[in-house]
Structures are given as C-alpha cells and as structure tokens.
Structure prediction request, 56 residues.
Amino acid sequence: MAYIISDECIACGSCESECPVGCISEKDGKFVIDASQCIDCGTCAGVCPVGAPSAE
Ligand code: SF4
Ligand code: SF4
Prediction:
C-alpha cells in the first residue's frame, strides 16, 4: 500500500515538508510519492488543500 497524488495537485508543496519519511518530491511541476518509502500514514492527504493524495 502507498498513497498516490492525482493530477489535481496544484504543486503547493505543503505535503512535502509534512511527510514523516520524506518520500514526497517535486517532479515536472507536480508532486509525487515514492511508493517504496510511503508508510501509508495519510498525513499528506490531511494537509492537501485540493485532496490530491489518496490511498492506492
Ligand atoms: Fe508520506 Fe504519509 Fe503521505 Fe505516505 S501517506 S506520502 S508516508 S505523508
Ligand atoms: Fe500537491 Fe496537495 Fe501536495 Fe500541495 S499538498 S503539493 S496540492 S499533493
């Protein structure tokens, strides 16, 4: 299991600094989650203003 960020992402960057394992990074103007590191905590979904991250 891992969270994924949908195309709704407006690249605000809020989730990147909140992720406890630092597995969110910017790529080509959107933010992406490294599924191999994600611990499924849901923090990114909680801070995102547009609801882009969701459980896979
Ligand atoms: Fe990071 Fe948690 Fe979001 Fe996974 S669910 S990307 S560990 S904040
Ligand atoms: Fe994208 Fe939401 Fe993360 Fe902002 S908080 S960078 S909109 S996924």
In short: The chain has two helices and four strands. The chain has one domain: 3-55.
